[in-house]
Amino acid sequence: MEIKSNKIAIIVGAGAVENAWVPIINAIKVVTGQTVDIDGANCFFARLIYLLRFYSKIPHSNAKTYLKISKENAETIKIGICEEIKIAQKNGILKPRNEFRKILKKFALNNCRNSVGLISTNWDTVIDNDVNNLLKEIYEGEQTLKCFHIHGSVEFPNHLYLPSETTQENYRSDTENKNFGLNHAKTIQLLEQANQILIYGLSLDPLDAELSQVFGGASFANNHIQEIIIVNPDYERIKNRVKVLLYPKVDIKIRCFSPDDLETER
C-alpha cells in the first residue's frame, strides 16, 4: 500500500529552543542595566513599540526629536539582541530541545515524498540549522530546507520584528513596510499550500495579533488543509486558540501531543 505524501508546513516558536530567552534578557540588561524575566522583557518591548507609534503620530513640537530617540533605542536593542544570540549559538547555550528530531521524524520526515516547509518565529537560526543537518544525515546529500523567519533573523538586525510590531507601522518608511509585508506574504503562501500544519513550541500569544491573523487567515483560505498537529506541554490551551482562529472553519482535524509522549494522541 502506497503511503500518501503530504505538503507540510512546520511552525516553530521559542519553545522549540532551549534557553531561547536567555540572550534576549541579557541584551536588555546590557542596554538598560535592568534584570528582567520573560514577562518583563515583553513589557519592555511593548512600551518601546508604543512610544514609536505615539511619537510618529502625535502633533507635538518635540515629537520628531522623541521619535528619533525611540528609533535609536530600538536599533540599539536589536543590535544587542543579535550579538547576544550569536554568542549564545556559538557557545551552545541555544540548542533544539531533545524531542525536536523525534517530532520531525514522526510527523514530517516519515515519508521521503513529503513536501516540507519551515516557518520560525525565532530570531536565532538554531532550528533551521538542525533541520538541515538532520536532512543531510537522513538523505546523505546536500538537501536543505528553506526557513521563513517571519519575525526576522539574527543575520539582519534592522529587520528584526519586536513583540507587538506589525508589518505596517507609521514610524517605518513605505519601503521598510513593504519588505516586512513581503516576508509575511511568503509565509502565508506556504500555509495556503499545505494540507497539514505542524505547530511546535509556539503559543500563538495574544500579544502577536498579526501572527494569529496570518495563521487564521491562511488556514481559512486554504481549501487543502486536512489537519493541524500541535506538539506542546500546554496543548489544550494552544488547541483552544487554534480553534478560535480557525472559526467558522470547524471541519479541520486537530491532533494534540505532549513532547514527553509522542505516541499518545491527546
Structure summary:
The chain is of the alpha/beta class. 47% of the residues lie in helices and 13% in strands. This is SIR2-like domain-containing protein.
The main β sheet shows up as: 6 strands, parallel
Class from helix and strand fractions = alpha/beta
Strand order of the largest sheet: 5-4-1-6-7-8
Low-confidence stretches: none
Q: Let me know the number of strands.
A: 8
Describe the model.
The chain has 2 domains: 7-18 and 95-257, Rossmann fold, CATH 3.40.50; 22-90, no CATH class. It is 47% helix and 13% strand. It is built from 8 helices and 8 strands; from the N terminus they run E-E-H-H-H-E-H-E-H-E-H-E-H-E-H-E. A 6-stranded parallel sheet has the order 5-4-1-6-7-8, covered by helices on one side. The chain has a two-stranded antiparallel ribbon with strand order 2-3. Strand 7 (227-231), helix 8 and strand 8 (253-257) form a beta-alpha-beta unit.
Notable traits:
Rossmann fold; 6-stranded parallel β-sheet; 8 helices; 2 domains; alpha/beta; 266 residues
Topology record:
Blueprint: E1 7-12, E2 17-18, H1 22-32, H2 38-57, H3 63-90, E3 95-96, H4 100-107, E4 115-120, H5 126-139, E5 147-149, H6 174-193, E6 196-200, H7 209-221, E7 227-231, H8 235-246, E8 253-257
Parallel strand pairs: 1-4, 1-6, 4-5, 6-7, 7-8
Antiparallel strand pairs: 2-3
